[in-house]
Amino acid sequence: MSTRPAPQTGANTTAAFATVTTLFFAWGFITSLIDPLVAAVKGIFSLTDLQAQLSASAFFIAYGVMSFPAASLLSRRKSVPTVLIALVLMIAGCLIMLGAANAAVYSLVLLGLFVLASGITILQVAANPLAAVLGAPEKSHFRLTFSQAFNSLGTFLGPWIGATLFLKGVEVKEGTVITEAVRQTALGGIDRAFFWIAGLLVLLLLFFFTMRKLVAAAAPDSAAPKGFGAAISEALASRWAVLGGLGIFLYVGAEVAIGTQMALFLNSDAIWGQSDAAFGVPLLGLAMGSDGVPGVSLLEAGKAVSFYWGGAMVGRIIGSALLTRFPAARLMAVFAAVNVGIASYVLLVGGVGAGFAALSMGLFNSIMFPVIFTLTLERSTASQEATSGFLCFSIVGGAAIPPLTGLVSGATGSYATAFIVPAACYAALVVFALAAARAKVRSTGEPPASTIH
């Protein structure tokens, strides 16, 4: 019978933890590139909103396909080899994206995103437990929060850098024509982005490989894996595992749908397309970098998306403090209700103010994923392993809700109207949180590291 080695302390463990933390930044940065990429491919390939949102679907469907196989791989191969496999798969995804940019084939973009996200899914399954055990047990929450801060930093920087590379000269408003020169510039930006990401991932792979013995010395042994069918059956037999899975599905779907359409929404004439108001906001205006032309271009709008994810980063800090004073379920109900109100304002009122309101939704998204996760684990009658696996599987909502949002915006000709979809998702999450507040708590043990998102 194998046992997990005692957690190490000292310089070696600190170095190992720092190595793992770089992985959190990497997958946060790459994931957030999807937002400007959706706007770019819509213009480059002359796509409908629904077709453009398939980029998000191709990425997030990997969570549904790979979550359980990744857990099985981790159990058989252990943490360090699993991380190395994940990085190789991510590099392969980048290489496919390079081919897609050079061949200008959208189907290859979708394939590349799926392969890249498959690697990220495996990486998350392996890296989260590593961050938890690399050091003293009583500081595991601090380490996970610290690593998540770097993940949030990656999601903040990704949209700004992606917009700068992908959206120069690209416009998607009705009546605009993408010239071949603009199209080639945008494809070149995608090519450069994924070339450098592939190179950095190779360096990260080599770095992690050289540190493998250091990390492996503190890595946990994994329990024998349950088969996919057995884990799903156990989770489906628990009412709260199913409800929690639905909660994760709706939350991730809403968060991704808002992020991937945000640049298109802000760029629309009904919001900021004909207004310079955003440039008057100090940090926001500086980040957007006005081109001197009246109104907000798609490039400038794409840079503003960073503040949607930046709000989530700030919200995690504020939310962590609030969670020490208020019940998690009731606080989540309030946050979800606020987002219902904001989405309703965007839908019913619109205008320049709606742009600022929409960006603020990230602030209230901040606590939802970990709170849904822990509320479900505390109430589920299934094992933590089966419940956790099912909840990770439910991230596939990021593949389902964005196309629905794109379908609504395409059918109505309004990105503001499409906010009815995330509004409905957040309304359902209010009901989930209130139900959780009244439900019986079955387990109050420390939540697993997979609550990081």
From TrEMBL:
Main location class: membrane
Residues passing through the membrane, by range: 12-30, 50-71, 83-105, 111-134, 193-211, 240-266, 305-324, 331-350, 356-377, 389-409, 415-437
Places the protein is found: Cell inner membrane
Signal peptide per UniProt: none
Full protein name: MFS transporter
Membrane topology summary: Multi-pass membrane protein
SUPFAM superfamilies: MFS general substrate transporter
Keyword tags: Cell membrane, Membrane, Transmembrane, Transmembrane helix
Source organism of this protein record: Sphingomonas floccifaciens
